[in-house]
Amino acid sequence: MLQFQTRNAEETIAVGQLFGQQVTAGDVLLLNGDLGAGKTTFTKGLAAALGITRPVKSPTFTIIREYRTGRLPLFHMDLYRLENSSPAELGLEEYFAGQGVCVVEWPQFGGDELPLDHLAVAIQRVADTDDQRKFTLTATGPQSQVLLQRLQAGLPHD
């Protein structure tokens, strides 16, 4: 597990950029955080580092946004709208087993469809601030552990 903080949206984007430099095909990031925590802001930085020039928007209404023009394809998912339905018919396993990077917002609604090997990225607002965020990274398998080790060198530590 690794914890650190960012002071503003620009630093959150920079953290996303570091991730974008380190991710490889098959990496799955599960972003946990309240509305407005910075999940999409983080993803914008990751996409920029992958060389994706198309604007990154929250996939709340589309559930999955695909960005295929970068170093690796990016599949940005928002499972919030699946709160009262099943994710089984979305074919998520094809994305997770593919040659891209998957970023999943609101993973608690993904149920058994989510891979066991993932990097959980919890983003929390720091009390009494508008812009500061606390990140907690937890690897759950061999591929995510390798990613976490690559990230540790470039990320601030608490």
TrEMBL record:
Question: Which ranges form a coiled coil?
Answer: none
Subcellular localization, per the record?
Answer: Cytoplasm
Q: Name one Pfam family in it.
A: TsaE
Sorted UniProt keywords: ATP-binding, Cytoplasm, Magnesium, Metal-binding, Nucleotide-binding, tRNA processing
Say where the protein is mainly found: cytoplasm
> Is-annotated flag, keyword Transmembrane?
no
InterPro entries associated with the record: P-loop_NTPase, T6A_TsaE
The membrane-spanning stretches of this chain are none
Q: SUPFAM superfamilies, alphabetically?
A: P-loop containing nucleoside triphosphate hydrolases
Give the family from UniProt: Belongs to the TsaE family.
Task: Spell out the NCBIfam families in the cross-references.
Answer: T6A_YjeE (TIGR00150)
What name does UniProt use for this protein?
tRNA threonylcarbamoyladenosine biosynthesis protein TsaE
Where does this protein come from, organism-wise?
A: Lapidilactobacillus achengensis
What's the source species' lineage? Bacteria, Bacillati, Bacillota, Bacilli, Lactobacillales
Protein encoded by which gene: tsaE
